[in-house]
Amino acid sequence: MDQSDLPHTNWRISERARKLTSSAIREILKVTERPEVISFAGGLPSPATFPAERMREASDRVLRDTPAAALQYSATEGYMPLREWIAARYSKDGVAIRASQVLVTTGSQQALDLLGKVLIDPASPVLVETPTYLGALQSFSMYEAHYVQVPTDENGLIPEGLTPALTQGARLLYAQPNFQNPTGRRLPLERRRALAAFARTSPFPVIEDDPYGALDYAGAPLPTLLSMAPDHIVHCGSFSKVLAPGLRLGYIIAPEELHFKLVQAKQATDLHTPSLTQRIVHEVVKDGFLDEHVPTIRALYRDQCAAMLSALEHHMPAGVKWNRPEGGMFVWVNLPHNVNTMKLLEAAVAENVAFVPGGPFYAHEPDHSTLRLSFVTVPPARIDEGVARLAKLIRERL
To answer: What is the CATH number of domain 16-45+291-397?
Structure first.
């Protein structure tokens, strides 16, 4: 619907609202609610990883011990003990992160929205990977960003591609170094060092969006960009993938000057992230629970990923290629160029299997022969069955 008036009224909507589009993933998720559908579509954490009992106990303690504070308005910056916990967790290898740098957000998607609101003017160049996270494109598009795609390969962003001509006038560079959504790729150590070196002299911030960093299957994480250039990196994190997405709890770690403007923008958005949620999460994590819990998530996702890769090897026809992720939640698949995955999806849904076409993840010139598979919510036997159905449909189109 592209019109200046709302249906059945004479109300005018903004130019910004008329440009809004729905998330391709969210529309697909409506279909996958049917129990017969084998869904590789949503990037949803497995409910088997949700520490429900630990959350219930923490909720009871918070509402018993500090009910008035937990149910009252609170500071925009966030619950101070939680901010201190986040700062301490990122203070390692000689890097000191201060609680004054931490802003608690209502999910990491709000973090992207606030960054766009503070950093982007209409037509501002914004540097993104190829492809990149669809949610970031949606968020930054609200502020009429002009996207500039940064060169990438199977290992992610290529720092040497950040030439003066490409980066001229840019307001930010958005990157997901760890198990990127949608490709699952992880930026190698040498490229991290080069990107951190770039950030130290850049006239604009590098945004390190890192919701998946803890989910490396070997439990051997690479250093964050934040740890390499703490005064020049804006780091976004989330509790969605390590606790539960329904909490809607994320955070931004930024230099104080930018932090102050982000706080002002958040005050105009929601005043503050829910006090109750923040206190419950702090109660859960404050004594080291994540160090016990995250390895169980890694083990589950490692096995699910192995099942997905085995099914792809067994069923997919020649000419289909995919990556072998070292962590995270996604496998990125490249089909022969004559196969359009938007059209393939229609046939797949008719066979009760779903995925996300790759095209919407591109800021420009989408590759419609790509698709994303998420494996973490599907049992191994169902993974094999779903991949077999999908492979049959692809084979029919070659």
So the answer is: 3.90.1150.10
Model-wide pTM > 0.85: yes
Q: How many whole angstroms separate alpha carbon 354 and alpha carbon 140?
A: 27
- Rounded-to-integer distance, Cα 37 and Cα 381, Å: 14
Sign of CA dihedral 307, 308, 310, 314: positive
CATH 3.90.1150.10 residue window(s) in the chain:
16-45+291-397
CA torsion sign for 282, 105, 264, 181 is positive
Contact 307, 228 (CB under 8 A): no
- Domain 52-287 -> CATH class: alpha beta
Residue-wise pLDDT tens digits, 314-369:
999 999 999 999 999 999 999 999 999 999 998 999 999 999 999 999 999 999 99
* Cis status of the peptide bond prior to 125, with omega within 30 of 0: no
Q: What angle do CA 325, 177, 212 make, to 5 degrees?
A: 65
Specify the DSSP class assigned to residue 33: T
Distance, in Å, from the CA atom of 98 to the CA atom of 50, rounded to the nearest integer, reads 29
pLDDT single digits (tens) 159-179: 999 999 999 999 999 999 999
